[in-house]
Amino acid sequence: MRILGIWDGHDAGAAVVSEGTIEFAINEERLSGRKLDVGFPTLSIEACLNYLNLTPDDIDHISSSTTDFSKTLTRAAPSLKEQYYMIRRRKTEQGSMSALKKKAKYFLTEIGPSRLTEIASGVLLKKRLRAMGFKDKPLLHFDHHLCHAASAAFCSGFDRCLILTLDGIGDGLSGSVSVFEEGRLHRVAAISGRDSFGIFFEHVTNLLNMRELEDEGKVMALADYAYPVEDSKNPMMELFSVSGVNVAARYGSLEMYERLKKILWRYPSEQFAFMAQRTLEAKVIALIENALHATRCKYIAMSGGVFSNIRVNMLVDELKGVTGSFIFPHMGDGGLALGAAMAANYKLNNISRYEFNDVFFGPDFGSQAIVDTLNKYNLKYTKYEDADELIKETAALIAAGQIVFWFQGRMEYGPRALGHRSILAMANSEEIKNHLNLRLKMRVWYQPFCPSILDEDFRYFAAAPETPPFDKFMTRGYRLMPGAASEMKGVISLAGTCRPQAVSERDGRYYSLLREVKRLTGRGIVLNTSFNLHGDPLVCSPEDAAKTFIATNNDYMVIENFMVTRTP
Ligand SMILES: [Fe+2]
Known about the structure:
alpha/beta; 39% helix; binds fe (ii) ion; 22 strands; 8-stranded mixed beta sheet; globular
């Protein structure tokens, strides 16, 4: 049975699963070029069918997530979603109408699903699907947090674990606590949308003049630059209370915003960021400790946008009661299409385990498509018949301090570039870091980069397990072992933490490249940042790559077996 999962909200997308295999998954932004696109995932669905060489008739079931009031409303009137997208991304003038729409959004999203909204959502989605050729296919709907939970549980590889989901809001909830045991998922508690850690952090991001649901990582990075505030003097600590597996916010979301605004008035931005980060860490950790105790679990798997916070994830992993932790790599709503497909596969076929060794679920491109694109843009290239030669050449460039754009195989699913659509450089240079941040990618200066590192060199990190598997998905921070910082000046935060990707033999060409870098430099480590301009989605096709290469004026790009050099 082949199941198509779809998600038509923030970071829309589609995914196909069959038996226990994830066959394909992609987000609309990669195809439309609009970061975190919110539209109906037409392009993603087409990409699924094209890649797998299927027609709509080959799909047995379709599964979607979230039928709450606001989601249903935007399915009926997609222009509302588009307007809010423009406000959230600050692509429209600030004005009283924008403020009003924003207030309306927070008010409406708290209204949970009902039988009526589920029926209406079904009718509206089926209409869109019929227009794409899906005639009378069964359509199932699954709760927002069940989809997050399914993705975490079924990919975790754990036999028995605590499942925690935390996000802004979906289907009236901002979180759920479940136990995954003997292949079954049991929910033991839910956190209401009013008591949302995710919305709290969204407000903080917004008040710091950043884009909520997008720039939360910048808030976390900025927090490092604050003079610390003790918990007892942190006015945000009283905004939430955690008791057992219950969370209670002192204010509703709109009042919370006003309260945070008052706090910001009294503190500089970096201290405001610090206090918010510290509050999030303390409260989430308290919740997890209580949940572990209540469920007697030693392993934990997490999903939902709050777990994009790698500092929170680091603290979870360091908890004494935690033997192992897993964060679903596409933890935000962008992962819901796959979560919905998995939830359906669980319900219909009882499948609750997936082989989950990588996230390369997107498209790849053959030599002809690449040559056509390079010629179209008049780019100068050399084709290497011998891949080893290409790897040697690329490693030599990196070791000599060059920045190399690297495009190989199937595109990554989720927010991280993991060596298939990456920009690579030496990891030990602050100069390269600054050049990359300020000139090439146009990111803020205080946002750290991350490294890819050979499994055998993972000893640089404290609290890492002694033997593989290590974190392959860049989902959590690690503290560095003493003396390691000088090796990684370009990829550590001011607090001395780092978010590494462990690279093993399974990674094929990327592994060979790191081995060669190690042979030349003594260190099996490179700076790895996503192949895109800041504010754009990760590149998907050779065309996207060529355009980014030209726009940045970089000197080198490796795309499959082709080395592209800048034409003067
Ligand atoms: Fe969510």
